Amino acid sequence: MSSPVYVALDTIDLDHAKAVATAVRNHVGGIKLGLEFFTANGRAGVREMAKLDLPIFLDLKLHDIPNTVAKAIQALRPLDPAIITIHASGGRAMMEDAKAAAPSGTKVVAVTVLTSLDGEDLKSVGLNGNAHDQVERLADLAQAAGLDGIVCSGNEVAAAKARWHNGFFVVPGLRPGGKATADQKRVMTPRAALDNGASILVIGRPITQADDPDAAARAIAATL
Ligand SMILES: O=C(O)c1cc(=O)[nH]c(=O)n1[C@@H]1O[C@H](COP(=O)(O)O)[C@@H](O)[C@H]1O
Questions:
Q1: Average pLDDT, the chain
Q2: Is 203 within 8 Å of 8 (Cβ atoms)?
Q3: Predicted local distance difference test score (pLDDT) of residue 179
Q4: Can you tell me the mean pLDDT for 172-198?
Q5: How far does CA 131 lie from the centroid of its chain?
Q6: According to the model, what pLDDT value does residue 146 have?
Q7: Is the minimum distance from the CB of 134 to ligand 1 under 6 angstroms?
């Protein structure tokens, strides 16, 4: 079985992204390219990374009116990514139109509550429930909109899966030591997230900023 780990290559440097991906390729199941990479390298950069022959997760977290999101996804169709992201808080119509615009083989998943946010952060933007309740609410909305799954932290994935048995669950905010670091607040170990029902594990800095990314990826793989 291929690895559930998608390595997040958050860099503007195409050569560096290629070098890290090449180093870790035997211990990961796919590559995640996000806003930082895409704004610097565009579609040509994604095509270049696709030459490594690993599935591409294009994480642009689109969040706009339905027409704009659908047109942006149409523009990405030639890249045929394995997975793309939109924000669930864009609403049901936006999610429906996003799914309709995507290639049939592309999983469209909705970000629920970013793993960098905690209850206090939610309050500060006017959301009075906790992260757990908000993830459940948005998981239900994403399912009703016909999406493939959601992005949530390892803390909520078991509850989301209980409501959406065949959903696809993307879990970032993973730290091998299990402790919140840098900007991530809702964190978990990769092993615990998998046990809780994650379909794939998104891991960036614990691999990419290690002295030896290949050894770090191998060490994480050994825990799974
Ligand atoms: O959609 C995502 O992948 C995502 C959602 C989320 O709630 N939190 C989150 O960290 N991510 C992404 O997951 C990756 C986490 O990176 P590290 O914190 O370096 O492991 C980054 O590329 C984030 O953009």
A1: 97
A2: yes
A3: 83
A4: 93
A5: 17
A6: 98
A7: no
pLDDT > 90? residue 95:
yes
CA of 220 relative to ligand 1 center, distance in Å: 17
Most ligand 1 atoms within 8 A of CB, residue of 6, 11, 58, 115 to mutate: 115
**Would you call 118 a catalytic residue per the annotation?**
no
* pLDDT at residue number 129: 85
205 lines ligand 1 (CB under 6 A): yes
Is 183 among the residues known to form the active site?
Answer: no
Annotated binding site: 10, 32, 115, 175, 184, 204-205
Residue 1, pLDDT score:
64
Is residue 59 annotated as part of the catalytic site, yes or no?
A: yes
What is the predicted pLDDT for the residue at 2? 87
Superfamily of domain 5-223: Aldolase class I (3.20.20.70)
Predicted confidence (pLDDT) at residue 16 exceeds the cutoff of 90: yes
CA distances from 186 to 88, 108, 126, 155, 189 (A): 18, 23, 19, 7, 11
